Amino acid sequence: MVDSVLAEAQLTLTQLDALVFGRGPGSFTGVRIGVGIAQGLAFGADLPMVGVSTLAAMAQRAYNLTQSAQVLSAIDARMNEIYVGGFHCLENGDWVTIQEEAVLAPELLIQVFSERVQAFSMGAWSIAGTVWKAYPELASQLHLQISDSGVLYPEAQDMLVLAYHALARGEEVNAEHASSVYLRDTVTWKKLPNRK
């Protein structure tokens, strides 16, 4: 797939400026696999890497579709928690974080996000991600002017704008320093009965 995309663009891997990767948050295994593949390609081509937030990529997608400059992205983190982040698009197309990315119980979103937004006196927001369908009452409980962007998942093409600005800020790293962001510090797994 990588070869076919490069061939379509009439480029080789070594002609690229950097490799962009989804750093998470998201599925532990999926994020690790994505980072690992990107690291392998970057090592082989001696390219720097730029990590892009899954939640910010969803905000960019929502902006592309709706022109909403303020987006609250949230996805299911399993174990009765959600990953959430709030973003504001600047006039130059770069994004600033209004609500730091966090993993929390859905019922805490109302308190945490409402306090943060009130501190910034923000206006209308667009929502993106799967959480809003899983917990339909959350959006109305925020007591904000909210519209649904229809965005459920991030798309690779939306990472490019974010990576462009990150590169301009000098945020690229060598492949060996590329890492994922899980937000959750510990995970406890329970063995099923009669399993070793």
From TrEMBL:
<dbReference type="GO" id="GO:0005829">
    <property type="term" value="C:cytosol"/>
</dbReference>
<dbReference type="GO" id="GO:0002949">
    <property type="term" value="P:tRNA threonylcarbamoyladenosine modification"/>
</dbReference>
<dbReference type="Pfam" id="PF00814">
    <property type="entry name" value="TsaD"/>
</dbReference>
<protein>
    <recommendedName>
        <fullName>tRNA threonylcarbamoyladenosine biosynthesis protein TsaB</fullName>
    </recommendedName>
</protein>
<dbReference type="InterPro" id="IPR043129">
    <property type="entry name" value="ATPase_NBD"/>
</dbReference>
<feature type="domain" description="Gcp-like">
    <location>
        <begin position="1"/>
        <end position="186"/>
    </location>
</feature>
<dbReference type="InterPro" id="IPR022496">
    <property type="entry name" value="T6A_TsaB"/>
</dbReference>
<dbReference type="InterPro" id="IPR000905">
    <property type="entry name" value="Gcp-like_dom"/>
</dbReference>
<comment type="similarity">
    <text>Belongs to the KAE1 / TsaD family. TsaB subfamily.</text>
</comment>
